[in-house]
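Recap from last week: sequence in, structure out.
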Amino acid sequence: MQVPNLSKCKMLRKMLHSHLWQRLPRPFRRAALFRVTSLFAPRPNVKVKATEPILVVGALRTASGLGESARLCHDALKAEGLKVYGIDLTASLMQVEDVPDFPFTDGRTYEGQGSLIIHVNAPLMPQVMLCLGRRLVRDKRIIGYWAWELPQVPDDWQFGIPFVHEIWVPSTFTAKAVRSIAQNRPVRVVPHPVALRKLTAIPELRSAERPFTVLTFFNAASGFFRKNPMAVIDAFRKAFSTDGSAQLIVKASNLSVFPISIELIQNAMQGADNILLINKTMSQAEIHKLYHESDVVMSLHHAEGFGLTIAEAMLHTLPVIVTDWSGNIDFLNSERGIPISYNLIPAKDPQGTYHYPNMRWANADTQAAAEALKKLRYDKDYARRLGQAAADYGRRTWSAERYAKTVRGHLGLR
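Predicted structure tokens:
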């Protein structure tokens, strides 16, 4: 019995990873992986045209931004009547399976014409194509859906260009970064269909009896320092100190991937009983409830490619306080939230993923954020207007219908 390409890829990677890979320096590992896989991976057929079915490829069962990007893509297209399959790369990319129940029809054996939308960043495209195999990718239109959070993409993104017909990104910020290396490939902005989750306000859960609640979300695997939760804690403490009638919920996940992050947060929280750290992966229902038990969501990130949690908060009719830079400026303005001013500083990331000191990212003004928090607490009408305007915009802009129409247009499908 023949073992499928993805299974072979998984077994080989597990063996090499445990016995050799982890013993090599990280920069060497990355360069070696991208160069070797690019030599052997199948290239797309230049003349192929886009058709159905659409195969959505990505880490469908991991709680990363690109994993959610793939899930939203799959579900939105399916909801709008397109023929859609999924191919899960969670195990092949050695990521954590923390969304184990995501349902899809497996398309890994589907040969012939179709379109692949691959939600994996450029450097890993050769590896993904190698895992999918020549027979599957042959005769298919290949779209790379890529996300990046800094003004330029790293040099190793060049490895992904020969393996795509076109590139989709979630924001104009990312599009500008990618176009510099795209050669003759089209780069199209295709925002996520976040409203697909049908997030609606449940005002009765927001009780006046509980503390004024500020919520911040981040996944340490997506970059602890990039998400910058320390700035949120600083702004909250400047606004409310140890006032027990206000509370900050720091919803974290995957802190174990960068163990020092726990110590950093605990030190920042020291002496503040009104700050609660939650470090676990939550279900959609649990996250939904957490939004509705909050009054405001704050993200003082250094950089975002889009800002999924910001968009989700807006759809929950919550006012948001957000760094006024990078991907979220496509949709976040003073009519729909509170953009926070910043200065640009070198992108230094002790975690490593975003350590590019020759580039810049934003450092939000925490005093301005503190003033914004106080205004939202005491001006309920203002907070309500912002939240409603945000939700109205999100429902119009991030619907499954609009997303599917955009995809059909780019692929030339009826």
